């Protein structure tokens, strides 16, 4: 706010403490398959809290409409709330118009919601979908700016994923090749970024077809040495099955001391009169 900025300017230069950006870990990506007119989205499944892995198998590909899905990076609560809000607005718009949701309308709704917060809603999104105008991929930044590209990556593992896209993407790829490319891009983020990990999720959106949600398509980080320790049955010895309850003995009320003023009056009455 203006008050916070004003107070920051009044502080000496050596005492200014600027807020630090919170590092988040995610690898999300998406591309357009021009040969078959569809969109392929991919994401890892690791959720982190500082240096702790909070969830090993969370879903980062969110539903917006039957023909539109969105990958989210950033704060989990922000991405969940933003995508649920836009999904609700798109549903109301479909009920009102009786038509299929358009991808650019979802993009406009997202940027209009994010821009007023100037990045304080930490939701970096990869928006993908197919409508009557064709397949679309949008890169939506937390402060509200957007890019429309053939392939996009976001998150802390985006550089590793982008290296796969830059070296292998072309307009002549088939759907299977695009799916393999997205899979390899997410794997590159999983194995080269400490904030990304666990499994690979992929969603394929085609025109006039239900979306294919490939949950845990690949699980490259399965436990190699499973826990072999098992607690044997009847290991705990039962000492007693019934517990006798006894009524507690009544406690006599504590004596309340007389007020100090009453004691003084009694002393004065006992004193001889002159």
Name the descriptors.
274 residues; alpha+beta; five-stranded antiparallel sheet; elongated
Description:
- It contains six helices and twelve strands.
- The longest helix is centred in the first third of the chain and has 22 residues, at 76-97.
- Helix content is 30%, strand content 25%.
- The radius of gyration is 32 Å and the shape is elongated.
- The strands form three sheets. It has a five-stranded antiparallel β-sheet with strand order 10-1-2-11-12, covered by helices on one side. A five-stranded antiparallel β-sheet has the order 5-6-7-8-9, covered by helices on one side. Strands 3-4 form a two-stranded antiparallel ribbon.
- Strand 1 and strand 2 form a beta hairpin.
- The chain has helices at 2-10, 76-97, 103-114, 158-168, 175-192, 260-270, and strands spanning 28-33, 38-44, 47-49, 52-55, 61-65, 68-74, 123-131, 134-140, 146-148, 151-154, 200-205, 212-218.
- The protein is an alpha+beta fold and 274 residues long.
- The model has no long low-confidence stretch (mean pLDDT 87).
Mean pLDDT: 87
Strand content: 15-25%
What is the count of DSSP helices, taking H or I runs of 4+ residues?
Answer: 6
Distance between the termini: 80 Å
Largest sheet: 5 strands, antiparallel
Uncertain regions spanning at least 5 consecutive residues: none
User: Percentage of helical residues?
Assistant: 25-40%
Order of helices and strands: HEEEEEEHHEEEEHHEEH
Assembly form of the protein: single chain
Q: How many strand elements? A: 12
Short structural summary:
With 274 residues, this protein is an alpha+beta fold. Helix content is 30%, strand content 25%. The chain is built from 6 helices and 12 strands.
